[in-house]
Amino acid sequence: MSSTPTPAARIALVRHGQTEWSKSGQHTSTTDIDLTDEGVHQAVSVASLLWGLDLQPQTVWSSPRRRARRTASLAGLHVDEIVDDLAEWSYGEYEGLTSTQIHRTNPGWSIFTDGAPGGETPEQVEVRVDRVLARARERLVDGDVALFCHGHISRVLAARWVGLPVSAGALFLMNPAAVTVLGMYHDAPAIEHANVVPFRPPRFAHTAEAAGSEGADAR
């Protein structure tokens, strides 16, 4: 009797949970801000999200930032290595600013094509993202790999995995505590799942019942 084949190992990109700055849309790179209460809830939900996607990380790497490290911990995973290359795109002079604020003085600006003044260029980010992916591929022989990182850098990781330029990162969205799965299709790199977010449970049953009663009275 033949055994069931073991699925090919995959890479899970996990964005950190919500912070005050991600909530307000402020660009956050080197600022070492912590998770909000909602971000903590999201991070805890990542464990069931990975389980639902049939991911069992054998290698876990994290950005050096507290928000990424704490998300991994709350997801119940031990970080094997802090990887500087997983840090968020350096925003330089745009650190702490929202896109709306930036566009007032720089209309049409996009981090994926223009980089940031005093920060990193797309070319610089491409080098370190490719470096991370090359190392992660080597670890796939041991099983699934989880990379806990940030919004923009994870979008570039997804784009580069399938051979697209850094500018294509704009085509991939990544919500707080979302998971994007990098896999293979007929021996070619593929995006297996994109921007999968934690399940948000429905309101308590009695709330729904109360609303139904009010509706009945109105009729």
UniProtKB/TrEMBL annotation:
The active site is at H16, E88. GO terms for biological process: regulation of phosphorelay signal transduction system. It comes from the Bacteria. One of its GO terms (molecular function) is protein histidine phosphatase activity. Substrate binds at R67, E88, W89, S90, Y91. This is Histidine phosphatase family protein. It comes from Nakamurella flava. The lineage of its organism: Bacteria, Bacillati, Actinomycetota, Actinomycetes, Nakamurellales.
